[in-house]
Amino acid sequence: RAVVEAVHRLDLILGNKAAYQEVFKPENISLRNKLRELCVKLMFLHPVDYGRKAEELLWRKVYYEVIQLIKTNKKAGTDSALSPLQHIHSRSTLECAYRTHLVAGIGFYQHLLLYIQSHYQLELQGCIDWTHVTDPLIGCKKPVSASEKEMEWAQMACHRCLVYLGDLARYQNELAGVDTELLAERFYYQALSVAPQIGMPFNQLGTLAGSKYYNVEATYCYLRCIQSEVSFEGAFGNLKRLYDKAAKMYHQLKKCETRRLSPSKKRGKDIKRLLVSFMYLQSLLQPKSR
Description:
The protein is mostly helical. The protein has helices at 2-14, 19-22, 26-45, 47-72, 93-120, 148-173, 181-194, 200-209, 216-227, 234-255, 263-285. It has eleven helices and no strands. The chain is globular, with a radius of gyration of 22 Å. The two termini are 41 Å apart.
């Protein structure tokens, strides 16, 4: 009941027209912290019945929806063609609060990741480098009294913590003066190590890659996501968008006049033509089932 009530109050705040000015008020930060505590308590008391739901609520209501609100609410008069975060003035109170929100999220999920490993005595040393280390002086560990389903939830919860950590690092990377691209990449690949059958981290890696190498890297990631045992629905739309871009770029290249260029410029042009043509060919070879 307390979780539902907290969610309802947060929804009312987010529904306000001036929500992006309200979300970082002390009372609203306190409300999100309270919801976070309740969700963590719920997931450890009833991991099988409510663990997954509590995780989702915690991520969406405490972190993700605040991030989306800041990214989508532009200041009046801001050009819509600008970056979603350019309406945040550098060193402003809002920017400082937003940066703190992301850093706090990373700290929380690192702590949760360690706590789940410790609580369920998970051995993830071969998968990730952020592991719970048992003190050898303590001696034999007390056997964990958890069912198979609880252990399964714990393993997948670690996987999802790593995805969330990757997302938070990716959002940090969008801010001026922050370079956390490699950190985000590391978290996504570790999520794949914990649960290789889940394709979602590949989708996130595609988003992280952006338009590198004329979208070839992102296309590879989206294809890997789609081909995974458990694919992510959003990857199909992301891939289609890149193929549409490739077709547009290919036809634009064909229209361009062939001018005499210096060897270095000609090399760059040839590489672009090769990669764009390769992408366009990929789009033509894709089955049209979606």
